[in-house]
Design goal:
heterodimer; A: alpha/beta; Rossmann fold; 7-stranded mixed beta sheet; 5-stranded mixed beta sheet; 12 helices; 14 strands; B: alpha/beta; 42% helix
Chain lengths: 321, 279
């Protein structure tokens, strides 16, 4: 079974919806839990295919999350599906104490992450969820860059035993990976290696934007290495330290607050292991607003142009050091 | 189901409850830390569960067809540890390590440390949800075991309890039995003064459960009540057990200060003497 999406724009949540049905065929212990946003989380097809293994808890995310823990304690593989804002905040303590402290095998499918969710506005824009989840021991956090990665990630996290937070996007994003892409949990992918001027490390929706920024930079004579650090926890420290050593300058970009997300994780690792110049791009400690997701990313400092300009400025700083 | 209670060795269960109470007082006094009041109020219910109802195997704590028990009011771990120790899951001497560094008896129950603990609890209001998950799993797998959840009355103030209650009746979970240890006191004072939970029976009924009230210290009533709850079909059943916080020693009974404070060794000694006399 595979996913054929190349050349299309597709949301990672849709890829999740397809993968979870196929996973359900393979693994009878997979169950899906929803909290009244099953359509938005793309779990409708699973419910149709496996009505007995699909449970909707209504608007009750806390109950859903601890029910998931109860199911996991019995050897099931529950996917608890809701919006990232509610998975990480409304059900925060349930994730921490009942899923992480217990090391139970709960998979959280957190859709509508970041400001890329768009028009629903700040109440529904999870820009601190990675920060929250990173703080919990035993938690694994994955933010796939496109539909191919999301599809493969679903199978990878199902094979892994332990609590996992799968961060998904509502809006369609360009497919950047081909059929041959292999997703390995915990291993960052060097997806473009054009040179040692700078490393750009990102995850989720920003990976595609960083690749486009790399093209712009190439025209400006700046050669970069682009890394998809899809597993934000545990961070692939070896790959990141290696590339930092090679380039001497690291730019991070994420659809998340600059506090506590991928950029923070990278900066923490590098400050101890390989102190190089680091610049973090993300939402700069503010709530944003309603608007189309891609436009919000542009407005709040995460446009392709902003990535390219920040990268260039960082290279100049490195040169004048 | 009253005839069922007639066949039960009530005296034995009462004796076990009495032993558990003494262990509770001893371990908390020794640790100088722990929740004595709610542990004592639930001792009779715990005795009925662990020495009559629960089909469990101390030699095989993870036996797949065992009945599950969830101490939703996880701060009352001492009474659970007393039950597990007396039931043979670990040596009774282990109680002296309660809440100490390196021990398996954590302040609140930890499924990864203590043999016989089916799921970790401690943060209030979540046990019934975990029970719903276990009950759904048992239904999916066609297993016939039951899931017992013991809740505290202050947990009736947690919104999530009612999310869980709603989902249990919605999914027609008749393999789960909820028992509320209604001892009328919580950390800050009388439960119904702090935040009124009455009418409690009506609340559970409104959430789709069948409900029975019992005297949680009258062993035949406890046995009959839980037997009634276990014979549900399609509708979950809850027991509201009226209890006395600190039951078993007059210095603890109905006194709010014994929610989370440990007795001194002298106070414990006094309580233990009274318990011996009453036995």
């Amino acid at each position: 079974m595979s996913i054929v999406l190349e050349g299309r724009d597709i949301a990672t949540r849709e890829a999740f919806g397809q993968a979870i049905v196929e996973l359900g065929e393979l693994r009878p212990e997979v169950v899906v839990l929803d909290a009244d946003v099953s359509k938005a989380c793309s779990t409708g097809p699973f419910a149709k295919r496996f009505p007995d293994r699909s449970f909707n808890f209504g608007c009750a995310e806390q109950n859903m999350m601890t029910v998931a823990a109860g199911l996991a304690s019995e050897g099931m593989i529950p996917f608890a599906c809701t919006f990232a804002a509610f998975a990480s905040m409304r059900a925060c303590e349930m994730v921490r104490t009942f899923c992480c402290y217990t090391k139970l095998n709960v998979k959280i499918a957190a859709s509508h992450a970041g400001i890329n969710v768009g028009q629903d506005g700040p109440t529904h824009q999870a820009i601190e969820d990675i920060n929250i989840m990173r703080g919990f021991p035993n938690m694994t956090i994955v933010a796939p860059a496109d539909a191919v990665a999301a599809y493969r990630a679903v199978f990878a996290v199902a094979d892994y035993i332990g609590p996992t937070y799968l961060r998904l996007d509502r809006n369609k994003t360009p497919v950047i990976y081909g059929e041959d892409y292999k997703f390995e949990l915990g291993r960052a992918d060097v997806i473009l290696d054009e040179g040692c001027d700078l490393a750009v490390i990102s995850a989720g929706v920003m990976v595609g934007r960083c690749l486009r920024a790399a093209e712009t930079l190439k025209n400006r004579g700046i050669r970069v290495t682009v890394i998809d650090s899809h597993t934000i926890k545990p961070l692939d420290a070896r790959t990141i330290v290696d590339v930092a050593r090679r380039t001497g300058a690291v730019l991070t970009a994420e659809d998340h607050s600059i506090i506590g997300g991928l950029g923070t994780a990278v900066a923490e690792e590098l400050s101890e292991e390989e102190p190089v110049l680091v610049k973090r791009l993300g939402i700069r400690d503010c709530f944003t607003e309603s608007g189309p997701g891609p436009d919000l990313l542009d407005k709040y400092g995460l446009s392709v142009q902003a990535v390219a300009d920040s990268a260039e400025a960082l290279v100049r700083r490195k040169e004048t050091r | 189901m009253d005839s069922h209670a007639d066949q039960v060795n009530i005296k034995l269960l009462e004796d076990r409850a009495s032993e558990m109470r003494k262990l509770v007082v001893k371990m908390i006094a020794n640790a100088a830390s722990g929740h004595v009041g709610g542990s004592l109020s639930s001792a009779d219910i715990m005795s009925a569960l662990y020495f009559h109802f629960l089909r469990i195997d101390p030699l095989n704590p993870r036996w797949v067809n065992r009945d599950r028990f969830i101490l939703s009011k996880g701060h009352c771990s001492p009474v659970l540890y007393a039950a597990l120790a007396l039931r043979g899951f670990f040596p009774v001497e282990d109680i002296w390590s309660l809440r100490q560094i390196g021990c398996h008896l954590q302040g609140h129950p930890d499924m990864n440390k203590t043999p016989g603990v089916d799921i970790t609890t401690g943060s209030l209001g979540q046990g019934l949800s975990a029970g719903v998950g276990m009950a759904l799993a048992a239904k999916l797998k066609g297993q016939g075991h039951r899931i017992y959840v013991l809740l505290g009355d202050a947990e009736m103030q947690e919104g999530m309890t009612w999310e869980a209650a709603m989902s249990a009746s919605h999914f027609r979970l008749d393999n789960i039995t909820a028992v509320v240890d209604y001892n009328k006191l919580q950390t800050d004072g009388f439960t119904n003064t702090i935040m009124r939970i009455e009418p409690l029976v009506d609340k559970w009924r409104a959430f789709g459960w069948l409900v029975k009230e019992i005297d949680g210290h009258d062993m035949p009533e406890v046995i009959a009540g839980i037997s009634w709850a276990n014979s549900s079909e399609g509708i979950p059943r809850a027991i509201i057990a009226h209890t006395i916080k600190g039951k078993g020693a007059s210095i603890f009974e109905n006194k709010v200060e014994w929610h989370g404070a440990p007795p001194t060794l002298e106070q414990a000694d006094c309580a233990l003497k009274e318990m011996e006399l009453c036995q």
